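All the exercises in this workshop are built on plain-text protein records. A record pairs a protein's sequence with a compact description of its fold. The structure tokens are whole numbers drawn from a learned vocabulary of backbone shapes. Once this layout is familiar, the rest of the handout is easier to follow. An example says more than a description, so a record of this kind follows.
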Amino acid sequence: MTYLLTALLALAVGWCWGHLTARVVHVPVGATAAQDETALCAADEQLLGEWSAHLDQLTAPFDPDTTKDDTP
């Protein structure tokens, strides 16, 4: 039982030491926060315009004369 506890303690210490000494480097790739915000706002505006157009189409009064095909 002592060997098992010793092995478990060694693994725990090794795990902690390994994570403590790990070299994690954060390399920013891409746009800055301001550029991200600008792109997200532009995408929101475009989506809002599309939804508004769909809503206008859904709420427009039905005119049966506009649905007829005028080709002879």
Summary: The CA atoms of residues 46 and 63 lie 28 Å apart. DSSP finds two helices and no strands in the chain.
